[in-house]
TrEMBL record:
Cited InterPro entries: EutQ (IPR010424), RmlC-like_jellyroll (IPR014710), RmlC_Cupin_sf (IPR011051)
Protein name per UniProt: Ethanolamine utilization protein
């Protein structure tokens, strides 16, 4: 079985708008075809300055900040100013608020079907 390759995805892939005027997310790769019972999907999430995004996870996700910055908080009161290189695990059921004073770009891997965010 051949591997998949996505050349320059961090700089070339433009995720579509998913919420508000400033939140973008798009899947780049998925294991859905090879493992339809337990797929994982990966891609990029970009937030521009503006409306905060409040998101409740219906799946487990890992995210690494690859550019810019985010202020990330959850319903427990935990708050982090995230910058390039920071890694997060968002458990299924968590309610996360993302904001930024400029922009942030994260690469994610989620335990979900393609387009299931």
């Amino acid at each position: 079985m051949a591997f998949q390759y996505h050349r320059s995805a961090q700089t070339e892939f433009k995720p579509p708008l998913i919420a508000n005027e400033n939140a973008y997310l798009g899947d780049v790769a998925t294991s859905q075809e090879n493992d339809p019972e337990k797929p994982i999907s990966a891609g990029f999430y970009r937030l521009e300055k503006g409306t905060p995004l409040v998101y409740e996870y219906t799946y487990h996700e890992m995210k690494i900040i690859v550019d810019g910055e985010f202020d990330i908080s959850d319903e427990t009161g935990q708050k982090v100013h995230a910058t390039r290189g920071d890694v997060f695990y968002f458990p299924k059921g968590s309610k996360i608020t993302f904001t930024t004073e400029s922009f942030g770009l994260g690469f994610f891997v989620g335990q979900r079907r393609e387009g299931g965010a």
